[in-house]
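Could you join me in thinking about how sequence relates to backbone shape in a protein? We need material for that, and I hope you will provide a protein of your own picking. Label the sequence line and the structure token line clearly, so we can match residues to local backbone shapes. Would you write everything just below, so we can both look at the same thing?
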Amino acid sequence: MAIRLIAPPVAMAVSMADARASARANGNDQDAEIEIRVRALTAEAEHITGRSIINCTYAVTALGFAGVIPLPSSPLVEVVSLEYLDVDGATQSLSEDVYVVNRSIEPGFIALAAGATWPATKQSPEAVTLTLTCGYGPDETSTPAAFKGYILAKVREYFAPAGTPESPHLIRGLDCLKVHS
């Protein structure tokens, strides 16, 4: 099974104005560096928690249908499509009545619906492709407070005067958001 990010988030998880204030930057001379830092911290927070903050689209590919298809991130916004290569190599879309999205655990998984059977697929590394959107929303207004607090505090640390100690406890603020599957 392979997971690819096919449409990364367009917006940042915190506003540039908030990030600039946390960096204690006057004007926009440091905006490029601040944006890089915010995006890096966002990626770090997403990795630690197993969540996507700003909406993005993933493709999960598999050799075929076998058991369940785990979702790559939480929260799930929508399953865009579930396609497969039939035995002749033609791309087919799997009907939504053949599978269910199980959200009883996070990040969840795709499972076979009761009474349904998975179709036969061509032998191919990408015989099955699940395309889905995950995230809390399209921009920083949807970012949960714990993520914002972590990112802005880490920006503040990064741009603090030399010799300022870093807090080893900031990462604990993400504990409430971790996906435990």
The longest strand covers residues 76-85. Helices lie at 16-22, 31-49, 145-158.
